[in-house]
Amino acid sequence: MLKLFTLPGEGKIRSPSPFAWKTEAMLRLSGLDFEKEYVADLSKMPKGKVPVLQDGEKLIPDSSLIQRYLTETYGIDLDKHLTTEQKAIAEAFRRMTEEHLYWAGVYNRFVDPLGKPFMMKAMFDGMPTEQAEAIFAVLQENAKKEMHGHGIGRHTQSDIYAFGKADLDAISNYLGTKSYFFGEELTSIDVAIVPVVASLILTPIDTEIALYARTKANLVAYIERFDRAVFGE
User: What is the top-level taxon of the source organism (predicted)?
Assistant: First the structure.
């Protein structure tokens, strides 16, 4: 049986990692049998992060590499009915979401002061305050360094959120009144977009970017629709 190494979520937030959430959704849609194992020490994972898929003795890290593996090994292709043009559009939106909007979400949780109270409670509830503060400070500094290396972290909070709002506008405008990104059938771009957008909408943090995401009624409905279709709730 396949095993997915992931991080535990809460409620409809299936994982604090949108990429692990994405991979679990992909596996559920594939119909393949799999089990989950929650990871306590990410340093033991290939590349130091989740998701990681185990198939026998083989470990496959990274959601995009896992998607490729499922297609090449098991013939799982959520995009087989898409045209070449649609696949190109999907790839552009995936990269925008996972490599740009995602970082606005990281800022929302770990850098914006409004995100800290929720993150402290969610991650360190019951831990001595001094210890929790020290760990969060390390996580925050790591987030800042990663964002600076990416480039987006070199901007002001106002500009970072403006970039994120533009990404949300693009997703909302393209989705329009459709059930899913390309119509009535789920594809891999839905699996990539929903966890990133849902992390903003469903996490109870009232930052500027989160509040803006919640004004997009079609995105709120999209997340609910996706959750029912994939997780059956």
Answer: Bacteria
